[in-house]
């Protein structure tokens, strides 16, 4: 098979190529605005251009129409001011707030705002999985920077988090 001239199996005739955005590595709490975080997102890279479009197009966020994304300039200094999503353009607002350094907020119209921990792309899979679960836990009372500090310090967070009335990293 000649990969250049023949379409991939299942590709409609006449379609030169297809591209499907990868699903975001995302976990959300059952309800929006329950605490300091509403979930977590683990982007595949620190480059801002390719990462937000799959996030705002995520079926998990389809409870409302994403109208705006707010990112911290510390983590995303070169963030684009607009990103494309299927059928629309999403505004990207920047913030310098320290509490937003490792978080992203996704405005979903009348549904509300989802505030997500942004897990560093190079975080080991085990630690990232624990952070995805912890940030989406409705009992979580820790901010994005605090959760990341627990992991970066080499602690599993169990004693510290439980002393702050949280469920602990698993």
Average pLDDT: 74
- What spatial form do the alpha-carbon principal axes imply? globular
Count of DSSP-assigned helices: 4
Q: What is the radius of gyration?
A: 18 Å
Number-wise, the strands total 7
Q: What kind of assembly state do the chains in view correspond to?
A: single chain
Query: What does the main sheet amount to?
Result: 7 strands, mixed
Uncertain segments are 1-11, 157-170
SSE string: EEHEEEEEHHH
- The proportion of residues in beta strands is 15-25%
Which bin fits the share of residues in helices? 10-25%
Distance between the termini: 47 Å
Coarse structural class:
alpha/beta
Strands of the largest sheet, in order across it? 1-2-7-6-3-5-4
Written account of the structure:
- There is one protein chain.
- The protein is α/β, with parallel strands linked by helices.
- Helix content is 19%, strand content 20%.
- It is built from 4 helices and 7 strands; from the N terminus they run ββαβββββααα.
- The protein has a 7-stranded mixed β-sheet with strand order 1-2-7-6-3-5-4.
- A hairpin with a 2-residue loop joins strand 4 and strand 5.
- Helix 2 (125-136) runs antiparallel to helix 3 (144-152).
- The longest helix has 12 residues, at 125-136.
């Amino acid at each position: 098979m000649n990969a250049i001239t023949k379409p991939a199996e299942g590709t409609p005739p006449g379609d030169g190529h297809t591209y499907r955005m990868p699903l975001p590595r995302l976990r959300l709490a059952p309800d929006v605005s329950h605490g300091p975080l509403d979930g977590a997102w683990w982007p595949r890279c620190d480059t801002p251009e390719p990462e937000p479009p799959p996030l705002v197009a995520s079926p998990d966020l389809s409870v409302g129409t994403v109208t705006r994304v707010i990112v911290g300039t510390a983590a995303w200094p070169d963030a684009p001011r607009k990103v494309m999503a299927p059928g629309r353009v999403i505004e990207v607002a920047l913030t310098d707030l320290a509490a937003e350094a490792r978080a992203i907020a996704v405005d979903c119209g009348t549904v509300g705002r989802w505030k997500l921990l942004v897990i560093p792309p190079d975080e080991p899979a085990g630690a990232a999985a624990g952070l995805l679960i912890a940030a989406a836990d409705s009992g979580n009372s820790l901010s994005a920077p605090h959760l990341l500090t627990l992991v970066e310090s080499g602690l599993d967070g169990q004693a510290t988090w439980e002393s702050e009335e949280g469920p602990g990293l698993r």
